[in-house]
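Pilot study result, target chain (458 residues):
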Amino acid sequence: MMIGEPIQNSSQNESSYRSARQGRNIQQAQDCIYEFLLDIVRKWPPEEVLLEFKRLFIYHVDSISSGAMQAVYEIVFANNQEEFQHTLKRCCYILVNNWDASRNFKPIQDLVQIFADPSFNRYTASPTLKRLRIWINEFVQSKDFEELKLFTSRYEDRIVGPWTSRYTSYLLVPQYIDLKNPLEQREAARALSKQLKDRFKFDLAMYVAKSQIPAASDRAPKNPTALGDEALRLIKMIVARRGQFSYVNLASIFLQQIEALKYREFKQSLQRYLIFSVENHSFADTFKIKIKEKLDALYPSHGEETISDALILRTCNRVIDLLTTENQNDPAPLFIQLLSQGSPITLVIILLKIILISRYSRTHLEARIAGLIKHYQNYPEDDCDWVVNFLEIFNVTFAIYAENVQYNLVKMDQDPSQDAALFDPDTYRIFSQLRRDEKLELFPGLLAQDDFPLTDEA
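Predicted structure:
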């Protein structure tokens, strides 16, 4: 036994050495391909870059770079499909990221179309080319390729396309927060998500402006939401919450009041803050029970610690999970229960109130929204219209409160006989403008009116 042990150890050492050497060879091959693509994407026209990409990965012949061609061969010959897929994915995002940065969007769509090349199904006697085509076909069937296709969303008609295309800005979030993804992919996902949000903000502001101007029926303003004629009324109701009981002011007051509180006391205050002004009693009762159960069991060992930014962030993230999806795949039971009570705007407002006291929870919330969208994406829109309604209200609300567009309400009908405590959206006009100064308050300039509760009807 003792005689055999050195032989076994020697064999293991030799195997480890070969594995490490192969790993170094693959990394060198990957670096060679990345450097080549980075060089040409910055210098060549997009159509020539796309042709070279096809020569490397599709045809595997006639590349202008013998080094890059040999590097692809070495990765395929190493028979490491995982590394090949990582290489291919990063190569795609090197191109996507550079074209996006130069606002050259059409080649991104063309890049995705390359993978529909019929040559994938042609017979070949070459073992290397056969393996290459099998791996690429499997890449096309993978989650990685589904994520890549999101980058063509700017070309899709959000009205006639898949209903989930309206929420691509959220579907991109998991890509740019996943540290396992290549840096190029994360940067491209973040940039496109911001572009899509900015476009929605602009379209919403234009819709608000144009929809209040009399126009011919054939020139009706384009509505960027799926809420139909109720969109403008909803926007007015969301903006109407103002004065000392505005959501922004309530959040500011809450943050002042919790300074120096123990964590145990903070959790109790958080429950009161989130449930404050909720008028739907069925919703409020359900929420109170579940939120108390969640918070009572959350981080009990920190109960006597003074509240910190880290504890606020973690706690708000866990409450977001409770209200959306706790396993990142399936809707949380409370999400389904609350929406089944017909109060999507109330749930959206509670989520907004969380973000107003923990702005760094915004990305976490959007990632959970993406999880919900992915769960329902294979359902026809009509079969999950209650979820779509929630997503539309969420989209509009966060475009109004958490972005850099300022909306103001002006009462047009000063009827003295009208009850001042009642809010009639039809008697108001709404105005929007882009805030140039990021330090500007969210809603300066709103006319001083008596405060009134925001109902759940939208």
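One observation from the pilot: Residues 1-21, 418-423, 437-458 have pLDDT under 50 and may be disordered. A full batch analysis is planned for the follow-on phase.
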